[in-house]
Automatic annotation (TrEMBL):
This is Uncharacterized protein. It comes from Neptunitalea chrysea.
Length: 323
């Protein structure tokens, strides 16, 4: 029996919503986001504008846009970004799920994923690593995180890295990432707007105190480089210097120091992530994500699919109705 579940309204968890918003770009939205546009359409605090790069600003705008226009998304065109981030063993860009029943039992299932070592990515051995990880059934071992990490690192260092001539992982390798499936209680009953504003202000000040020169302010836009290798950072700084010698002098890196720069970037990145999280929370509260019922067709056009448990339940509830 075929059930027309697509006529039903659906909802998504905060986790899925965040994923959805970061996976898509609004077509025709490659314009330069001006300060004026930011204040009018994203958030009315001019001091925030100069902290975010254009990519960050677009991401924020899309986040708010999807919430704000959830009733009418069909008329807009979105472009999906590359699905597989190649960062994890199991997250491979498969479809995210939407739910139909608010008490669906899968809603509060937390799950884990495992980072793919950087050297594996750089040597294009992602498929080999994923297959190796699955072959050893690491996920099924049900070990505490620390023991599992030790086991994977040991096996990696004695087999995978040897076979592929890769450097060994150190014991402190961060293998596991616990991902929370946030269920449906993702909007607080009460949003403390004054507290939110104070937190934003505090982060702006923190960032202001860090960026003591126009050079550092500019370098803040490259904070995503904090995890890059020294060689890549040297290259990057060279190209920034060539493009903007007036902002980044030729000897900047020699004088400032590469570790210090990585540290600066890492802190800057963290501040920006916190700001992003706060603003996202504010938008979720403003547009009340908890209450939003999406049209399933719209969600399917965003490449989401119905959760299996919800789908089966809908089939069985519908058949109860008919007989
Ligand atoms: Zn479900």
């Amino acid at each position: 029996m075929q059930v027309k579940y697509y006529l039903v309204v659906a909802f998504v968890t905060e986790f899925t919503f965040n994923k959805l918003a970061s996976d898509f770009e609004l077509e025709d939205f490659y314009i330069h986001i001006s300060k004026q546009f930011f204040i009018e359409n994203i958030y009315p605090e001019p001091k925030l504008y100069s902290i975010f790069s254009q990519i960050n600003l677009r991401k924020l705008y899309v986040y708010k846009f999807i919430l704000e226009n959830h009733d009418n998304l069909k008329i807009y065109k979105f472009i999906e970004k590359e699905k597989d981030s190649k960062l994890y063993v199991f997250a491979r860009g498969g479809k995210q799920k939407y739910h139909i029943f608010r008490d669906c039992k899968t809603l509060n299932n937390d799950f884990k994923d495992y980072h793919i070592p950087r050297e594996v990515k750089e040597n294009e051995l992602i498929n080999e690593f994923r297959a190796w990880f699955e072959y050893h059934n690491f996920k099924e071992k049900k070990l505490p995180d620390r023991e599992l990490t030790a086991l994977v690192v040991f096996r990696y260092n004695t087999s995978f890295s040897v076979k592929h001539k890769l450097p060994k992982l150190n014991e402190g390798y961060e293998l596991i990432e616990n991902k929370q499936n946030t269920g449906q209680q993702h909007v607080e009953d009460k949003f403390d707007f004054e507290k939110f504003k104070a937190q934003i202000e505090e982060l702006i000040t923190l960032r202001y105190n860090m960026c003591t020169s126009s050079t550092l302010k500019y370098l803040g836009f490259y904070d995503y480089c904090f995890k890059k290798k020294d060689k890549e950072i040297i290259e990057k700084m060279k190209s920034i210097n060539e493009a903007h010698p007036e902002v980044i002098g030729e000897n900047f890196l020699d004088n400032y120091g590469i570790e210090r720069l990585k540290n600066f970037w890492s802190q800057h990145f963290q501040i920006k992530s916190e700001l992003f999280k706060l603003l996202a929370k504010y938008y979720r509260w403003t547009f009340n994500l908890d209450q939003i019922e999406f049209d399933t067709l719209t969600l399917e056009s965003f490449n989401l699919e119905c959760c299996k448990v919800c789908k089966d339940r809908l089939v069985s509830e519908n058949s109860n109705q008919f007989f």
